[in-house]
Amino acid sequence: MKIALAGIGKIALDQHVPALAASPDWTLAATLSRHGRVEGVPAFADIDAMLAAHPDIGAVSLCLPPVPRFDAAQAVLRAGRHLMLEKPPGATLAEVHALQAMAADAGVTIFATWHSRMALGVAAARDWLAGRRVTGGRITWREDVRHWHPGQDWIFEAGGMGVFDPGINALSILTHILPTPARLTAAELDIPANRQAPIAARLDFAGGITADLDFRQQGPQTWDIALETDGGRLALSQGGNLLEIDDRPVQGRGGIAGEYPALYARMADLVARGASDVDLAPMVLVADAFTLGRRATVASFDF
Ligand code: NAP
């Protein structure tokens, strides 16, 4: 099936374009972006023009930042095309509920992706935790925003989510593998004096799980989840790509290379089955952190 990619920025070029090029299911047939281009692919700056010019394009994958994404998403669904959304699926929960309803009315697929759930150790972690009781745990998600999000001022604007942009990846794994729903009980948000969104956050969940999210990490980068249970210890590292049980490696290897091919394979499967997949649990936890969180103003941040 032909697909269009919208928002040709870092993640589109780093992951989506190579995943589509290698996919047996999809052909990248157009792009939508004001500045970004993919060599050899017809480029558009207006989504309605792109959809009108290409009735053969059955699906559109949106890689825009969350705030400008809703209008484009509505245009895709109004045109009766299948819709795939980068994480987080929108700027607000209500937006995504509205898109879900539109997709159902139009009889098309909507897939709110969580790429970290496709990491190599995640499915095995979920299987291992089933039937066990989690007694505590710690998420450590610390990365250098200057390296991974160079010049992306939108990430620190209202709706950009700040450190929750990567932090929601940890929450997407947590909500997928825990045998019972995660519930946030407290949060502290560090917001730079010149910005609207947090550069660091500390979270507490019911049941003794904590999270330490930080965008200011220099040196080695950390994307780890450690959980204790009544039947042993689980550790997911490298963003969910390496699973260890009681300190012994069980599954996985480094890198996120397989996550995006797996997302596009799942999208193809959803379309083939006439199904949709929208799980807002990670985004609910972020919204709750903004609702409950105590704010501290910290040093200004510039790229
Ligand atoms: P990015 O490099 O800033 O790219 C987003 C693109 O969207 C921009 O290049 C821009 O292209 C377009 N755009 C349209 N309206 C915009 C606006 N109002 N403000 C800024 N850009 C706008 O961002 P990204 O890192 O690719 O992230 C995009 C989405 O992917 C986010 O939801 C993010 O959470 C997710 N994601 C990112 C990563 C990562 O490592 N960076 C990993 C996984 C997922 P034009 O100027 O050409 O229109």
TrEMBL record:
Pfam families: GFO_IDH_MocA. It comes from Paracoccus aestuarii. GO terms for molecular function: nucleotide binding. InterPro entries: Gfo/Idh/MocA-like_OxRdtase_N, Gfo/Idh/MocA_oxidrdct_glycsds, NAD(P)-bd_dom_sf. This is Gfo/Idh/MocA family oxidoreductase. Residues 1-111 form the Gfo/Idh/MocA-like oxidoreductase N-terminal domain. It comes from the Bacteria.
